[in-house]
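Listing 4. Sequential folding, example run.
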Amino acid sequence: MVDPEIQTPQVRLQALADAFHRDGFVVVPKLCPDAVCAALLQRVEDSLQPLLAPAEFEADVGYPGAPAHRQAEGGDTPRRLLHAYSRFDCLRPWLTGPDVKRHLLALLNAEAVCLSQCHHNCVMTKFPGYSSDTLWHQDVRYWSFQRPELVSLWLALGEEREDNGALLVIPGSHRQAYAAEQLDEALFLRPELPANRVLIERAITVELGRGDVLFFHCRTFHSAGRNRTRSVKLSGVFTYHDQRNQPVAGTKSAQYPSIPL
């Protein structure tokens, strides 16, 4: 985290950008106003009880700890509320507003940025009991852009700690190259390999509070454990790119138009 004593906006943003380029992630406390978080939480609750489509279920991903299929016990546990940008109008002005924009311009060293509607664009819902382990991966593995240079915004809507499945990140992992044999068929890190064990030992848990934002590079390796508490953990996740870095035509990354900020 950047020293809070740095008061000059330009100096502070440059310090954030330097930390981001070095580590592949940075946390900005309370970047999202509490009123926006409160409005979004109410809308999310309304979308969960009863569950309103579109949604992804834990059983759909097959990660460790997830129900085996939709008809199994806990098979109706949601994992993501999808299409969050178009779904939650209370969030749109902030997602494309000046506070988010100025941070992204600095982190991407860009003149103009866009929000992708094709990747993330969801509210993650980590329920107790049937949440799963997300294995070590880079988000860029299934994305198709001219350059693998995108930034994801992770908005905590409540406390995020190790016991409720907070994200873990490997600092500097976005700057390394990886041999094909370090990854499995789904492009997750193979933890049994000595080189990967050394990498994973560098991991840190990103603890967040309501309104805090984690920005992380699309090549930063990250993972998350299960929610072992009694409360649902909710997080908004969105992905941005330099306007000059366009999705490859005909791929999933170009399925929906990006939103200019």
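-- end of first protein; second protein begins --
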Amino acid sequence: MFDKDLGMSFKELFSPLTNRKAIWIIIIVGFIVFGNMLFNEFVWDDKVFILYNPDVHQINILQLFEPSNFNKATYYRPLVATYFAFLYSIFESNTFFYHFFQLLIHMGITFFVFLLYKKFLPQGIAFVLALIFLVHPINVESVSYIASVGNIVFVAFGLLATMLVLNKRITLKTGFIVWLALLVVLLIKETAILFILVLLVGAMFFKQQNIKNILSLGGVIVNPKQTGQI
């Protein structure tokens, strides 16, 4: 009887698998797997970019967008510097919160991955694949190493843009959010330009009308008389 009840309880935990249940399971698994890194200190580039970097010890947006440790000749990442500046202004050198927010972002991305997979796969398979993404060892550095936060933040905004394109017919408001998200990812990490290619290819394969809407959005913004759906 005990085993039968236990089996029923376990089944009820996942079925039906609502988005709320998925979020809670992702949070629980995420903290179980990565919880031990919440108490790590600054290491390696964390010290260079945050602890010993006066540029992020105050919130000066104009300065953060100028050449600095984050905006070198080989790359331009002002939003990463801005992110660290906001955290330092509140938590200073308390690394717990840097790790905490980084883990939250990773769990949020996992939920986005789940929603994206659900568009093409059965819900159960989509959720299992999302959990594999959550705990995969290849993500350890991006989640646990504070200086690598840009690697997951740009993915979050890139997935947001991708899902908006694949989810519905593009309206002026949605299209603006898509391009804003793409601008954000480019200001976080230059390799995020690949997201633009992924987005356009995805729109061509799954929402062919959206590709025309996205490319024509600039003209709509210039001409404010065009409103509503593109």
